[in-house]
Amino acid sequence: MFDGYEAICCRISVCVFELLSVLLLLVLLSSLSVDGRKARVHHYFEYSAMSCRAHSASLTDFGGVGDGTTLNTEAFRAAITHLSQFESDGGSQLFVPPGNWLTGSFNLTSHFTLYLDKDAVLLASQDVDNWAVIDPLPSYGRGRDTAGGRYISLIFGTNLTDVIITGENGTIDGQGALWWDKFHRRELQYTRPYLIEIMYSDNIQISNLTLVNSPSWNVHPVYSSNIIVQGLTILAPVTSPNTDDSCLNTRIEDCYIVSGDDCVAVKSGWDEYGIAFGMPTKQLVIRRLTCISPFSAVIALGSEMSGGIQDVRAEDILAINSESGVRIKTAVGRGGYVKDIYVRGMTMKTMKWAFWMTGDYGSHPDNNYDPNAIPVIENINYRDMVAENVTMAARLRGISGDPFTGICISNVTIEISKTSKKIPWNCSDVSGITSGVVPKPCDLLPDQGLVAECNFPTECLPIENVEVQTCSYRSKYL
Ligand SMILES: *[C@@H]1O[C@H](CO)[C@@H](O)[C@H](O)[C@H]1NC(C)=O
Ligand SMILES: *[C@@H]1O[C@H](CO)[C@@H](O)[C@H](O)[C@H]1NC(C)=O
Ligand SMILES: *[C@@H]1O[C@H](CO)[C@@H](O)[C@H](O)[C@H]1NC(C)=O
Ligand SMILES: *[C@@H]1O[C@H](CO)[C@@H](O)[C@H](O)[C@H]1NC(C)=O
Ligand SMILES: *[C@@H]1O[C@H](CO)[C@@H](O)[C@H](O)[C@H]1NC(C)=O
Ligand SMILES: *[C@@H]1O[C@H](CO)[C@@H](O)[C@H](O)[C@H]1NC(C)=O
Ligand SMILES: *[C@@H]1O[C@H](CO)[C@@H](O)[C@H](O)[C@H]1NC(C)=O
């Protein structure tokens, strides 16, 4: 349906790259037959990435053992320390072969690709002592679960450039049950670790992986820019997957997420800490996402939004059995803003609320938040959607004395379930317009007749024009 939009923006050189890879393969095959037994290629494959690498190594070169019980933390650290010498010499890639690779946390380096074979499974260490404790994020002031520090992520990077984590749908298993139990029993000393966190970095690609059982958030880019998240399968019983936090220019696409929390959470810091840090999330594209989130939202903006959230464009979204489609969460004390939000082409099946705005989310880091720091919510556009089996079309609550303004909803048909006894729209402290919306919206969002079409920007964001290229990996000759 929205292919037209994409065609204008992007996809130019796909065919060229495919041709190139066929040629490469032919060259390789002919060199094989010429050199015969002498130079047999041990292992060769191709993959898509923002940048290719000159140097390669396998985890097994550094003593890695993929038996599911040997701890590989030192192998990962030694491999990446060794490969970091190639940062300014064409970069490097680390191959993780088939196997079950138990590991504690390790840090990434710049101009580096971590590549998981399709049968490679990273298993997060179950020994809490293997997890270093790091400072809270400055824009949060404290950990999200507990006051004070937080356990470092399984895969961590800070102050980097050009980092890729990919693989033919290889798996990262956070083995989170240990952490969920501690969380529910209130035994946690520090905030639970994430699977992947990249801070203060740019040019990041995280793609074609399956992430399961994260102790907490799955992928957390923060204070970073130029990020592509593509082709992830995220299966998470209790956690919050992609959290795009104070980031500039991000593209999240072709992901399948089953979550106990929001499928994509967009954030930018918490109350006085987020206001002081002042780093917004801007220029975020979310497309071709399938989400199942029975207790949370498909796309959540906030509740931590104190640095501001601006210019989010989401389209071609399938939501199944989820609590709400798009949710804006905020509170007095947050400050900041959520503005210029555009969502179109969303199909929703079995939802509690298609649209939800919450102005009294509460949840403060401490009692030092500024009660005069009121958030600004404006220019929110939803269009071209169908929903079926929905309990309520919308529950929209702004803040008394601080209404959410510039809401526009057009061409949206919501089928309310036969068993619902709720009124379809319940609105307060909001203003805006609607057009071609069924069932009839609340009086605060008057219908304009079939004339208005809510906005969706036509020009591309820079991240939409970033092309992936075909890269190759070749292990040492036998
Ligand atoms: C992910 O995998 C798909 C299907 O194999 C492939 O077309 C795509 O180029 C890959 N993308 C990235 C960024 O790895
Ligand atoms: C990884 O980076 C963090 C933050 O810079 C640091 O605290 C930690 O010691 C590093 N870990 C290793 C093994 O170098
Ligand atoms: C990373 O960058 C941030 C922001 O520029 C800076 O404050 C911090 O000291 C840097 N950290 C390291 C380990 O270089
Ligand atoms: C990746 O693996 C997951 C889990 O096994 C599976 O559900 C998904 O369909 C796979 N994705 C692709 C593109 O093969
Ligand atoms: C209305 O939305 C549907 C998708 O729900 C879309 O197929 C249709 O083209 C839209 N109509 C207009 C006039 O944009
Ligand atoms: C409709 O939604 C209800 C929950 O509100 C669910 O129990 C039921 O299975 C759904 N029906 C269909 C046809 O999906
Ligand atoms: C609308 O929501 C408010 C707050 O949840 C509730 O008190 C009120 O009864 C609702 N209105 C109707 C008509 O259901």
TrEMBL record:
Keywords per UniProt: Glycosidase, Hydrolase, Membrane, Transmembrane, Transmembrane helix
Membrane as UniProt keyword: yes
Record-linked Pfam families: Glyco_hydro_28
Single GO MF descriptor: polygalacturonase activity
InterPro entries the UniProt entry points to: GH28_Enzymes (IPR051801), Glyco_hydro_28 (IPR000743), Pectin_lyas_fold (IPR012334), Pectin_lyase_fold/virulence (IPR011050)
Transmembrane segments: 12-32
Superkingdom of origin: Eukaryota
One GO term (biological process): carbohydrate metabolic process
Family: Belongs to the glycosyl hydrolase 28 family.
Protein name, as recorded: Polygalacturonase
Taxonomic placement: Eukaryota, Viridiplantae, Streptophyta, Embryophyta, Tracheophyta
